[in-house]
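Protein record

Derive tokens from sequence
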Amino acid sequence: MTNPLLTRSPLPFEMPDFGAITAQDYVEAVRHGIAGQLDALRDITGSGQEPTFANTTEAFEASGETLRRATMAFSNVKPSHGTPDILAAHGTIQALLTEHSDVVHLDAALYDRLAAVDAAGGLEGEAARLSAETLRAFRHAGAGLDEAGKTRLRELNGEISALSTRYSAALLATMNDSAVLFDSPADLAGLSEAEIASAARAATEAGHDGGYLLTLVLPTHQPALARLENGASRRRLFEASTHRGQDGEHRTLDLAVAIARLRAERAALLGYPNHAAYVLEAQTAPSLQAVRDRLEALIPPALANAASEAAVMAEDAGHDIAPWDRAYHSARVQRERYAVDAAALKPWFELDRVIHDGVFAAATRLYGVTFAERHDLPVYHPDVRVWEVSDADGSTLGLFLGDYFARPTKAGGAWMNSIRVGASLFGELPVVTNNLNIPAPADGQPALLTLDETRTLFHEFGHALHGLFAAGIYPSLAGTAVPRDFVEYPSQVNEMWQFDEELIAGYARHVDTGEALPDGALDRIHAAELWGEGFATTEYLAAAVLDMAWHSLAPGEDPGEPLAFEDRALREAGFDPAVLPPRYRTGYFKHIFDGGYSAGYYSYIWSEVLDADTVEWFTENGGGTRENGDRFRSGLLSRGNTRDPLESYTDFRGRAARLEPLLVRRGLDAAAR
């Protein structure tokens, strides 16, 4: 059979024919794509012509179309439906791509031509940006090293890639192994009948002869902890979550240490004091010290808020709160003091209605885009849904894929990916995906969301809009191809529409009766918004500190026993991990050990400064109007990295972002004084 990835897909939007693509097809296409790109690069460097933007920089950008097509398709399938054959192919593909990246970026002749184009000047706009960013990427990848340095760099990159692949595979296995099996429905008291039925189905699908299985989501906090009435059940679930990767054949801790040490050695080879400094050179944050200063400024007020919340919960419970009881008693306080029962609100947040009348409706109101579901395109799993997106003028904008339910073959967490990038160089329309891990409902039951899951839907769709609205020429600068500490900004802004009064009146309807939220419920939700922010901010900041600790290791530095290193790093920053563990511990911190966020987890709070300041702008200027949406789209969402993203922000806002709106949002303004 012909490999579908070796030619441009004849399907609408060049959608990959996922049903016809095998794991070996991905491997073959990557090999073929690598060979094709190397041929193209030899044509560039061996042309004998003086280097120009067209025959060098733009030609390099256009090279490797088959490779790009194959890797983008595979990068969507692997985390979303990582079957054994796909996971086996992943190791091979990662090794091939790592070696190929080194071959390309360490090509002295190609680097010299790119540098000559950039030095010649005379470029403007997106062409100037592409030249500068391409050259920066080559330098960052070691193009300036001598031959001995390049040889060691290749070795390091290969070792890091292999270890990251092993970490990811081990984490997926330990996630599945750590799912908690309960014997009786009584153990799950507090969960709804539908959730208990879903747990029974999960146990059956996992091969258990009866019982009720609670699968784990990636962060430390498990949603069921807020509702389980049985303290022993809460403790079992909490300890299963926090002990992932610590023991057994799927231990991830030693892999994490090895990755961090190799990254430190690589950073030194490239001329940086540590991996964090190396990463930050390509971000909007001006320096590692600036990031540390931002985190250090936020930690004391966050800890003060968390302590105040703990005192309130202890008073309510009549005793000190154990870590596994925090979410449960926090929910109790929310119900009793703010009359907000998050579990009782779930029937008003049915998945389909939230998607259509909430997430999509917000995009229609702001940007004029509309959505029509399609059932004729191949997908990689039956759960995946496809919508064609049309612009306000009726023209076709792209495709949006939604993959919402958890399954054993899916990585934890939530994310957005692109299958096609909206860049005019290849004449493609964007095809973007959202993945969540909502527990699949029992057969015949609707999928009901928590408020947090609803927020995640809006958040991830903010990433999708960033990709759908891409309006650049070059794929490497388009859509979400922005610095890591900027990419979360548009998605965080999109969260603001979750509780927009006009939108929520349309989408928050009782699944059985169609009734709107009870009178005053939205006011109570708003009143309760600051409740829990102390703990939420603290666990996030602790994870960001832990990331920076691992990636501030000096070359050759031995961190010692990984759990002791983790504990020491957190306590030195002012946290007590025995009371409140970070959002991710070393054993399951996929973001930083196999997720592209190494030394970058700080980026969420860094982006949130821009986000909070932008929400203030929308509020001051009339909210979710088409005029405001069009300005945000044209000034920011469509720009990608075609110019400095902070320049785009300043032009949009009229000034640099201020920190104060973030402090107010998280309830840190008073504590900071």
About this structure: The radius of gyration is 25 Å.
